[in-house]
Amino acid sequence: MSETRTLDEAPTDAPLVSARGEGNNRREEREGDVEDVGLHHIQLIVRPSTASEAWRLRTSDPGATRFLGGGIDVVLYTPETVTTLIDLSRVARVGVSEDRRGLSIGAGTTLSELLEAREAGSWVGGFLADVLRCVASPLQRNVATVGGAAARAHPWSDVILAMLVLDAEVEVYDGVARSVPAAEFYAARAQDVAPLITAVRLPARPASARGAFEKFGRTGFDVGLLNCACVANVVRGLCGGARVAVGGTPGLARRLSDVEGFLEAKRLSRETIAEAAMLAARIVDARDDRRASETYRRTLTGVGIRRCLTQLAGIEGEGAL
Ligand SMILES: Cc1cc2nc3c(=O)[nH]c(=O)nc-3n(C[C@H](O)[C@H](O)[C@H](O)COP(=O)(O)OP(=O)(O)OC[C@H]3O[C@@H](n4cnc5c(N)ncnc54)[C@H](O)[C@@H]3O)c2cc1C
Fold it and tell me: Do 78 and 137 fall within a single domain?
């Protein structure tokens, strides 16, 4: 059963249906100045309790509804045609669990909760935690959900970059519950109404798996001009099952399968790393935008991949350019 209220019906001293949406909407009621407040076009917040109910509400009027996770993007980018928010706080599981197949992260888990979860902190030698610590600011991580970050698909997303190199599976519901590899999920994002994300699963990796991440930004809290990540099993210096991805090119993060193939079964020597970095810089789908030129992005790709692989190889003193 959904819990539903219009903003007009909400008593001034009672929380609105969604605690996460409460701040803005309450300000709107009290100040009575809808012109200056975001989301003044929202008339209804609905809180379904099952994925099928959430999906039915979303598809009943796709132009007028949106899912609501932590609300960071919803507040900033929701078009005026949207009048109903579907609060996922009763649908999207909060929490992280580990079994022999890997890590399962509920879509309602905030990035801070994920970062603080013991299982996630040590995932792939601390790689996942290293990435999460670079996402926006702690205040934003306290609000942003894994489901929202995965669904919004910002081109510079550090979360999606990590999902790609960790071979993540996205658990979705769009009338049917199914699990889709992240690479496939992001390659096929043409659906009219993007599916509801219920969880993200990270498959188990051998103890030899290591990861490294590099993000180039103007400030510590800024989104990246470009980001890179590599994960591989390095056994006695030999590289296996490498995953290499680059994001913010300015397109959405993508794996560089030619670089991954080049690294397979190779010793991670300085020469191999230099060659892999050059290959990445050459083949990356870099373009100009107002934030950086194509040439600069190719240079950053080479430097970033070199730093990541150097870290995986455990070579000292080679981290900086
Ligand atoms: C100033 C700023 C800096 C940022 N810096 C970074 C950064 O450095 N690195 C980085 O990776 N990201 C960064 N972000 C992006 C941030 O991580 C995302 O905005 C945030 O994760 C969105 O999560 P949310 O839960 O608030 O999503 P919401 O705003 O609630 O939702 C985002 C979108 O996804 C939909 N949605 C929400 N939940 C689901 C779900 N479970 N299933 C399907 N659809 C859903 C919503 O309808 C909406 O369209 C930044 C954002 C801002 C505003």
Answer: no
* 14/68 same-domain check: yes
Which residue is closest in CA terms to ligand 1's atom 31? 148
User: Taking CB atoms and a 6 Å cutoff, what residues make up the pocket around ligand 1?
Assistant: 66-74, 76, 88, 92, 107, 135-136, 140, 143-145, 147-149, 151-152, 154, 157-159, 196-197, 223
CA-CA distance, 31 to 304, in Å (whole number)?
Answer: 48
Compute the distance between CA of residue 51 and CA of residue 171 in angstroms, rounded to an integer. 12
pLDDT in tens, 221-252: 888 899 999 999 998 889 999 999 999 999 99
On whether the CB atoms of residues 45 and 19 are closer than 8 A, the answer is no
What distance in angstroms lies between residue 144's CA and the mean position of ligand 1's atoms? 6
> What pLDDT is stored for residue 16 in this prediction?
35
- Residue 221, pLDDT score: 81
d(CA 299, CA 296): 5
**Rounded distance from Cα 145 to ligand 1 centre (Å):** 7
Residue 317 or residue 85, greater confidence: 85
Does one domain contain both 190 and 115? Answer: yes
CATH code for the domain in which residue 233 is found: 3.30.390.50
Q: Quote the CA–CA distance of 296 and 286 in Å, as a whole number.
A: 9
Residue nearest to atom 47 of ligand 1 (CA): 67
The whole-number pLDDT of residue 317 equals: 58
What's the 72 CA to ligand 1 centre distance in angstroms?
A: 6
Q: Which pLDDT score is estimated for 191?
A: 58
Is position 318 within any domain? no
pTM over 0.70: yes
